[in-house]
Design goal:
Strand order of the largest sheet: 1-2-3-4
Distance between the termini: 31 Å
CATH topology: Nuclear Transport Factor 2, Chain: A
Strand content: 25-35%
Order of helices and strands: HHHHEEEE
């Protein structure tokens, strides 16, 4: 089944636990857990050193992740982009959390993720 034939709820049901894990793993700076659902391309980018540097920087500036609210799902046959409204413990205001999922070998994997 392509992403374009899934309901938004089906996508949220897949995406939310993956993003929960990513946020918990980055809070703990746990590389193994953080890259668990990454494509090979993403694993090559997010080395243990890279993850630690990025996490230490955002935690110092923004604090930790707090509430996350669903905003939108953008479906394509081979991938889906998922957008949330994200809040932090120290930084005021609303941020964007986004993730692109693909399906490889029967698993849903993260091919891009960012918070800005």
């Amino acid at each position: 089944m392509g992403f374009d034939t899934m309901t938004d709820q089906e996508v949220w049901d897949i995406a939310n636990p993956i993003m929960d894990n990513l946020m918990e793993a980055s809070t703990c700076i746990d590389h193994g857990s953080h890259v668990r659902d990454f494509t090979e391309r993403m694993r090559n980018i997010v080395t243990p050193e890279y993850l630690e540097r990025v996490c230490r920087q955002y935690q110092a500036e923004k604090g930790f992740f707090t509430q996350r609210l669903p905003v939108a799902v953008f479906k394509r046959p081979d991938s889906v982009a998922v957008i949330w409204k994200q809040y932090f413990s120290k930084a005021p205001g609303e941020f964007v959390a986004e993730m692109v999922l693909v399906k490889e070998g029967g698993s849903y994997l993260v091919d891009h993720v960012a918070i800005f």
